[in-house]
Amino acid sequence: FLAPIQSDVTPLLEFIRASFPSYPDHGMGHSLRIIKNTSQILSDEAIASLSNYEIFAFLLSVMFYDTGLVAPAFPPGDAAVRESHPLRAAPVVRKYIKDKLGLVANDRLAECICFVIGTHGMKWEEMTENPLFTRVENIGNGRVRFSILSFLLRLGDLLDLDSDRANDLVSDICAPWVGTARAHHERNKHVTHLQIGPDALELEVECPDREQY
After folding, report:
1. Mean pLDDT within 160-182
2. For residue 64, which of 83, 90, 38, 84 has the smallest C-alpha distance?
């Protein structure tokens, strides 16, 4: 069921390069690594406790959450797009669910997915104090907990520390274009140890300066 959705979203995410050509990978590869990271963090019991709709909402949130970076009407690298992209993704999600997912189209499910996507651009207090954060919806034969899915997306995103996410050749040859995105390219190179599991999360990084730390 997810394969057609992935096939639809993948080409759209590739246009992020047109809006932010100097950025490291924000395509489907990034989304799939978030899913992998999250599955490694959760125990078998935790995964079993998720309803089918929670899993579905989480997967859609992961696949769509960077679609707001596609901005053909704005100049490449526009800072306003970067700052607002979690909110810009909401109409993309709502339209896709309405037009392409008729069998599971549900306004409350769409609201959950849009909220989860929006929280990855919020400060921690802003997220936890939002009235929707504690919302629980009964959809189909299961519950959907907004807070759990918001946590998982933020954590899975933060843990995409794959050094291959940034291309060294691009950083070297396109250095004048990379500019302020250089920290984005370099930060994953400083990870010296990473272990992700349901019992422990270990991360060691050697940063060259306080800004990157």
Report:
1. 68
2. 90
